[in-house]
Amino acid sequence: MKVLVIGGGGREHALVWKLAQSPHVTDLYCAPGNAGIASERIRHNGAPVHCVPIGAEDLPTLVAWAREQRPDLTVVGPDNPLALGVVDRFQAEGLRAWGPTRVAAQFEASKVFAQQFMERYGIPAPRGAVFEDPRAASRYAASLGGRCAVKADGLALGKGVRVCRNQAEADAAIEDWMVRRLLGPAGARVVIQELLEGIEVSLHALCDGRTALPFPTSQDHKRLKDGDTGPNTGGMGTYCPTPFLDETQLAQAYAQILQPWLKGCQAEGIDFRGLLYPGVMLTANGPRVLEFNVRFGDPETQVYLTRLENDLFELLWASAEGSLPSAPLRWSAQTSVCIVLASAGYPGDYRKGCPISGLEEAEQIPGVKVFHAGTDRVNGQWVTKGGRVLGVTALAPDLPAALQKAYAAVERIHFDGMQYRRDIGHRALRWQRP
Ligand code: AMP
Ligand code: GLY
Fold it and tell me: DSSP 3-state assignment of 189?
C-alpha cells in the first residue's frame, strides 16, 4: 500500500515511524515532512520514506500530487488542513483520506460549535455561553467574578484562548477580540466559560463514525518553563500513562464523554472518522471537557505511538473505512516520556540553522527514539529549522525510569540556545491517590 502523511512536525515523524513498521505499507511519502522523517525506512522492505516539498495547507498542490500518484491512504496530521477540508477534497477525487471532513472538524475549528454541541448532548463541560455583543459578554464574565476563559470562535493559530483571573483581564480580552478585532473575524463571536481548577489531561479516541476506541491518558506541559511558568507553547513534553485515573475512572470518563458525543454525531449526521482528542480537566466534580481537538496531539502522539502495539496502518484504514474492530487497543505495559527540545527564542521568534550534535549517541540508549519536529540536514550536518526541534522519547518500566533514560539521552544532544523543561512528569511524581 502506498501511504501519504500530511504534515511535517514531531507528530508526523511519530506517525511515519509507526506506519513504517506495518507489513502492509510498501511506499511511504510525507508532505512536507522534515529531515528526520526523510531518514526513516520501511521496516520490511528497507524502502526510504520520501518527503514531498508541498506545504500541509497547500490543498490544490496536494490534491494534484495525489491525483497523479494515487496513494491508497492519506493520513492528515495537523488541524489546519482538516479545517480547510482536505479530506473532502481528497474524497471528491475518489482518494481515501484519514481524518474528519470539514464539517466534522468543526469540533476543533469552532469553539462556539463545540460549546453548543456539548450543551445539546449533555457532555460534561464548563458552564459557559456564546456572545456576539461585547457588553453582554462583559456582564457574563462579571457574573463569574471575572474568573473565566474567553475563547475566540474561529481559527486563531492557537492564540484564541485567554484564561482570566479578574474582570479587568476578561474585559481586556473582550475588548481586544470583539471590539478591536485583533484576531480578525475569529473574534466576532466568543465563548466565555467558568474557570475550572484541577489536573488537565489529554484523552484520545480513534473513531470510525460508529465506534470510538479509547487511548490511555497522557499529559502535556504547555508552559515553556519549569513549574508551569513562562509563556504558553505548543507543548514541551508528555508522558503516558498518567496515574490520575484508575482503569474504572478512565472507563467512566470516556463513557461520560464519548457516549453522548457519538449520540450527538449520529443525531446531527456527523460521520466522524478520525481521532477525537478531548482536552479534559479533572475537577472535584468529575471530568470536564475544555476543548475538542480532531487530530492527534503533538507531542502526545510521540508517547502514544511508542506504546501502541497494534498495526497503525490497519487502525487508520479501518477508521477511514468505518470498520474499526470492537477489541480494545493494545498498549505496552511500559511508560513513555517525551521531552521537547526547543530553539532559543521559542515560542516567539526563534533562531534557525544551529548545528545539532549527539543525535546518534542519544539513540544508542536502548528504548530511546528521537522524533524530529524542526530539523534540516545541510551538507551532512543536522541543523535546527523550527521552534520545537526534537522530541526525545523513552520507554521504560515506570515513569522515573523513563524520565531517567529520556534525560540521559537529552544530555547527549546539543545545539546553541537549546531550551527544555527539566520537570516533565512532575505532577505525577508528586501525586498521591486521594
Ligand atoms: P483550549 O484551547 O480551549 O483548551 O484552551 C487552552 C488552555 O486554556 C487549556 O489547555 C487550559 O489550560 C486553559 N483553559 C481553557 N478553558 C478553561 C477553563 N474553562 N477553565 C480553566 N482553564 C481553561
Ligand atoms: N499537545 C497539545 C496539542 O496538540 O494541541
Answer: coil
Question: Is the whole-model pTM more than 0.85?
Answer: yes
- Summarize the chain as % helix, strand, coil (round to 5): 35, 30, 40
Based on the fold, state whether residues 293 and 366 are members of the same structural domain. yes
Facing residues of 187 across strands?
none
Strands 128-131 and 190-194: antiparallel
CATH of the domain at 300: 3.30.470.20
* Residue with the three cell numbers 477525537: 276
Residue 270, domain extent:
199-430
111 lies in some domain: no
* Contact call for residues 202 and 217 (beta carbons, < 8 A): yes
Q: Report the nearest atom of ligand 2 relative to the CA of 295.
A: 4
Domain boundary among the residues 194, 217, 235 is at 194
For residue 434, how far is its CA from the centre of ligand 2 (angstroms)?
A: 28
Q: How many domains does the chain have?
A: 3
217-252 tens-digit pLDDT:
999 999 999 999 999 999 999 999 999 999 999 999
CATH number at residue 181: 3.30.1490.20
- Domain end, chosen from 143, 166, 194, is at 194
How do beta strands 50-51 and 128-131 pair?
Answer: unpaired
- Same domain membership, residue 359 and residue 210: yes
Q: Which one of the ligands is nearest to 281 CA?
A: 1
Ligand 1 atom nearest the C-alpha of 194 is 19
SS3 letters across 383-418: EECCCEEEEEEEEECCHHHHHHHHHHHHHHCECCCC
| Residue-wise pLDDT tens digits, 356-365 | 999 999 999 9
Calculate the average pLDDT of the chain: 97
Residue 386 burial (CB count, 10 A): 20
Nearest residue CA, atom 5 of ligand 2? 297
Residues 382 and 260 in one domain: yes
